[in-house]
Amino acid sequence: LARTALWLMNCLAAAVLLALSAAALTCAELVNIKAARTIDLSGVVVVVQTNLTVRNDGPAVSHYTLAHGALDAHFARAVATINGTTSAACDKDAIHIDIGAHETIELVLSVEYTHALTPRPASIHQTDRQWLQFHGNTHFASPFVTQSQTTTIILPPGALTVVEAEPPPDARNEPATLVYGTLHGMTATSDSLLSLRFPSRSPLVTVAVLDRDIRVGFFGALTVSDRFTLRHDGAQLSGPFSRLDLSPDAGVFQRFTAVLPAGASQVDVTDSLGRLHHVEEERMRAAYRVHVTPRFPLYGGWSAGIAISYMLPAGKEGSSIRIPYFCQLHDDQVIDSLTLRLTFPPHATNVQLWPKELSLMEESEETGFLRVASRPVLVLRGQNLTTAQNMELHVTFIASPLQFIEPLVQFLAWAIAAAAIGFVLYAIFGDELAVSTMPALHPKSD
Q1: For residues 214 and 340, is the Cβ–Cβ distance under 8 A?
Q2: For residue 227, which of 241, 208, 242 has the smallest C-alpha distance?
Q3: Model pTM score
Q4: Which of 27, 185, 194, 262 has the most CB atoms at less than 10 Å from its CB?
Q5: Closest Cα to residue 288, out of 304, 314, 308, 316?
């Protein structure tokens, strides 16, 4: 038995080594002929776009493996197109495409990274300039050989002449770009650390928590409530604060624009102290923009709670809902945690949700006082979302005529309660009221 077990272990080890060797050989057969990268550091989200020319020197493969180097922990989203026209399914680890034997293709890969910029120094005074630091790679991170590559870095306006770069760039181009390369003969998994420190006016504001509550009325109208917890991740404010010394150089967050559906009405914006009055509304053909000035500006290390509620009319199909996945506050938005709660009328059945890649985290029922029947509830959750991941949700359900039993029962309950209260009041005060309303009798004088 011992010899048999040892023989089986040796066979298993040989099979594993053979599989690893085959995988390594397969990876080595893909070659990056050319890689042209553009790293955009002008906003809150770091966007890396790479134009690739890939050649397959071996048998056909079904995916192109991705690597992220120093930015691996900050990955949020990846999008890829093939030969300029066809979109390819893409996740953090690979682009799922078929590359034939001895085939050459053109790939455009766009990857978004969140929380990849950190303030240095970590704290500043109100009139100081905010500086950000970025750590990345000068080489294109890839498990394949790269024959030729260039890297272009886009900086915020005004940062070109003062940026601290290690290693130094090969060129500095106006208005605000650094260029590394052309580099040749990069080996697989080649790595070279890139460190940049530059000034930026961009407020590193993150939506730490977004609680989105959508309630479907009996006739299809929607009541939407969005509760935001905003957090400024930029350089923390040190020392006193004065409204007279507001400086955009410190990355202060003073105003935002909420993009609502075009049919929104009865918009109400509040914070922890009550309703905000510095609100300007702009109705457009495709959207309803609400420009909001918070009660206090937001500096690094500060946070604030904002709630936006509004109504949406019923659509042409009363049992079909189309609404954005989340509310957009600005173009460069990051949401750490999203909870979306959809509440349907009583007795609603056959609830369907699109797009299908959104995973349903919870399905429950809501009960309450004077509720004849519970209401179906769907709960969706998302994490580490960017503006580009906003999409239109399409929800359908089958409404039941039994849903109108609840408002009828509530009406009857309140009517009976009002009649009972009126009867009690009449029983207590009825005689006194009758006496007080009788005409006074006076004796007839002679």
Answers
A1: yes
A2: 208
A3: 0.84
A4: 194
A5: 308
- Residue 250, both tokens: 């410190």
- Under 8 Å between Cβ of 144 and 188: yes
CA distance 99 to 30: 9
8 A C-beta contact, residue 61 and residue 26: yes
Q: Is the pLDDT score of 402 beyond 80?
A: no
Structural tokens at position 170: 């090969």
**C-alpha distances in Å from residue 420, one per residue of 141, 416, 424, 427:** 77, 6, 6, 10
Q: What percent of the chain has pLDDT over 70?
A: 87
In whole angstroms, give the CA distance from residue 48 to residue 42: 12
User: What residue type is assigned to position 29 of the chain?
Assistant: E
Spell 313-322 as b/e; 16+ CB within 10 A means b: ebeeeebebe
Beta-carbon count within 10 A of 208 CB = 16
CB atoms within 10 A of CB 270: 14
Rg of the chain in Å (alpha carbons): 32
SS3 235: coil
pLDDT in tens, 129-167: 999 999 999 999 999 999 999 999 999 998 998 999 999
The answer to whether the Cα torsion of 17, 21, 22, 26 is positive or negative is positive
pLDDT in tens, 53-107: 999 998 999 999 999 999 999 999 999 999 888 788 899 999 999 999 999 999 9
d(CA 20, CA 2): 27
DSSP reduced 3-state for 4: helix
- Show Cβ contacts of residue 223 under 8 Å, excluding neighbours closer than 6 positions: 214, 215, 217, 309, 311, 312
Q: State the average pLDDT for the chain.
A: 86
What's the pLDDT score for residue 359?
63
Q: Are strands 334-343 and 205-216 parallel, antiparallel or unpaired?
A: parallel
Burial class (CB in 10 A: 0-12, 13-18, 19+), 31: middle
The per-residue pLDDT for range 281-329, each reduced to its tens digit, is: 999 988 999 999 999 999 999 999 999 999 999 877 668 889 999 999 9
- Check pLDDT > 70 for residue 371: no
Residue 444 DSSP one-character state: P
Q: How far apart (Å, rounded) are the C-alpha atoms in residues 209 and 231?
A: 9
Output phi, psi for 319, to 5 deg.
Answer: -100, 25
Nearest CA-CA partner of 199 in 42, 344, 63? 42
Question: Identity (one letter) of the amino acid at 194?
Answer: L
420-438: per-residue pLDDT in tens? 998 888 888 776 666 665 5
